[in-house]
């Protein structure tokens, strides 16, 4: 007889767009994705401003009526019933919010981009270590069966030595206009520097994810080589980056990654997923191409040098749960990883270890430095303040 699945009890910090998507995934039956060893429970939800908002959120996601609702993040992290906090606030808030949770003794899954600066990321890692807590950046794409398969193809030598990865995640947010002004107001988190807006921290991180999981993650430890970084950035009228390209050079490994991102042109000009590949992983024996969008690709192709030029296309659909209105977005796989790590006493995920999140933050920080993008002190400080407006919602 199968043993009882390990249940992990989630506390949700913030009630915005991604919190909704993630929670709906938590509420799907793991069996619909052939997972039987872990399951998820939402035991508390918090808005920074009102408990009513948290209650509305639970209704909206058709969540459990037993879940507690809070009108402050401080109350959420103090809830003794919560095993792990999911931080779903804008990236500007991640350092203060994740530290609030770690200081309260909670395990943390924190949305991407992990922080605004590398120093903040290092401080969070140090705190997780000090408190012996689990801590992970929520780069959900890494936990897709598609990503796992592609990493395996690379390490098994299927495309030979990988010399170059080209990766793009861009959306044309300018249409139907043609004047370079995007469809968001300047206050929107995508372009608002007070919320750490800009293409790189929001979208470019996925292009970098592909560069890192194909050129860095697979390098043998402990001699992993961080990249030399060369960046070009055009800035939007708010001062946030709008069009950013980063070359990551790994000279000892003879490889180069090019990560590009933009909010003015799209990886797919028409916005569909059937456009040209978003990612090309190029090796001595062939190439793997991954379909747009880089954060949620549904297929990849393998093109071998030797052979008859045949392209092997592999479809990787995301399982859905008929009992939950056929919902299934793909964020449940990272949640399953958190549950397994907690069950097994692991403090970090081998799929996205702390050192790799930090090196990626260093890469982005260096690119932003080269491009002259600066964020305000309130969101770049690495000094924790439980009373920061980022934690209290200005109350
Ligand atoms: N993994 C993925 O696919 C995705 C990840 N993300 C990441 O998730 C994070 C949140 O993005 P998203 O959900 O789209 O953002 P939203 O603006 O939809 O939600 C953010 C939530 O954060 C809380 N919040 C607290 N302070 C502020 C503030 N000053 N301004 C705005 N919101 C505040 C609010 O919740 P409350 O009122 O309850 O406190 C708000 O609803 C970002 O870091 C983003 O990068 C976003 C989209 C997709
Ligand atoms: O993480 C993300 O993935 C999907 C994008 O649309 C969103 O802006 C970004 O935050």
From TrEMBL:
Keywords attached to this Swiss-Prot or TrEMBL record, sorted alphabetically, are: Oxidoreductase
Q: Which Pfam families match?
A: GFO_IDH_MocA, GFO_IDH_MocA_C3
Under catalytic activity, the entry for this protein gives: D-xylose + NADP(+) = D-xylono-1,5-lactone + NADPH + H(+)
Domain Gfo/Idh/MocA-like oxidoreductase N-terminal, by residue range, is: 9-136
Is Heme one of the keywords?
no
Q: Is Transmembrane tagged as a keyword?
A: no
Q: What class of enzyme is it?
A: oxidoreductase
Record GO terms (molecular function): D-xylose 1-dehydrogenase (NADP+) activity; nucleotide binding
The entry assigns this protein to a family as follows: Belongs to the Gfo/Idh/MocA family.
Q: Which PANTHER family match?
A: DIHYDRODIOL DEHYDROGENASE, PUTATIVE (AFU_ORTHOLOGUE AFUA_1G07520)-RELATED, OXIDOREDUCTASES
Which named protein is this?
D-xylose 1-dehydrogenase (NADP(+), D-xylono-1,5-lactone-forming)
- The organism encoding this protein is Pochonia chlamydosporia 170
Q: What phylogenetic lineage does the species belong to?
A: Eukaryota, Fungi, Dikarya, Ascomycota, Pezizomycotina
